[in-house]
Specification:
Largest sheet: 5 strands, mixed, barrel
Shape: rod-shaped
CATH architecture of one domain: Beta Barrel
Number of helices: 1
Radius of gyration: 27 Å
CATH class of one domain: Mainly Beta
Strand content: over 45%
Structural class: alpha+beta
CATH topology of one domain: OB fold (Dihydrolipoamide Acetyltransferase, E2P)
Strand order of the largest sheet: 1-2-3-5-4
Distance between the termini: 99 Å
Helix content: 10-25%
CATH superfamily of one domain: Copper binding periplasmic protein CusF
Order of helices and strands: HEEEEE
Number of strands: 5
């Protein structure tokens, strides 16, 4: 009698577990998780290098200089002329680990 009860309970739990696994949506059917931040971030620093669709800005983080690489796309607005050594403020968003510049403001050179 005990053996029948134990086997019945084991069968019931195995069936319940199987149904639970099969009814969970597949990973590909789920909505993709949004990795990019919805609010843009802003940094200021000095332009270190300029590439075709990228540029690097040196910023101070906790007293140390750190280089951040930004991508420029068709939606990026640029105020001023990008040039190495210029002070800049960059508004950006993160998309799949890449920093995408949304607005770049290059400060004019100080008059002498």
């Amino acid at each position: 009698m005990r053996l029948k009860i134990v086997l019945s309970l084991v069968t019931f739990f195995m069936a319940a577990f199987t149904v639970a696994v099969w009814t969970e949506p597949k990973l590909s059917a789920r909505e993709p998780e949004v990795e990019s931040s919805s609010t843009p971030e802003v940094i200021s620093g000095k332009i270190a290098s300029i590439g075709d669709a990228t540029f690097r800005v040196d910023v101070m983080v906790r007293g140390r200089s750190e280089a951040l690489d930004f991508f420029v796309d068709d939606a990026t607005t640029i105020q001023g002329r990008l040039r190495v050594g210029a002070q800049t403020t960059v508004q950006f968003r993160e998309d799949a680990g890449d920093l995408i510049a949304t607005h770049i403001r290059v400060q004019p050179a100080a008059s002498r």
